[in-house]
Prior knowledge:
The chain has helices at residues 11-15, 28-41, 44-54, 62-67, 73-85, 104-117; strands at residues 60-61, 89-94, 97-102.
Amino acid sequence: MAQKQIARTSIVEGCCPALAGKVACPADKEAKRWAAVFKAFADPTRLQILSLVARNPGGVCECEIVGCTPLSQPTISYHVKVLKEAGLLEVEKHGLWCYYRLRKEVLAQIVAALSGLGR
């Protein structure tokens, strides 16, 4: 005797029919924010930039960042842009120069978010 198989469109549909609909989870926005932050951390150059900026709380000019790496100014600008968009750096303009500072409150939020995962 052949067993009849039930066609399912998703794994969730089989055990939790109430979850089968496409409903936006309130955590989606927060998850996307943290994904951008961790993606920014996932590059060695960006980690070097963060380390340099963290050691200089008064701010670091982008030209100083370029001088500390073998990379070109446009490449450094790209990495700084990623770090700014992730909320890890703040920028202060002085004439033509941009000075970057680490947003330590964001680091504290990262620690809190990670410690909350295990709860």
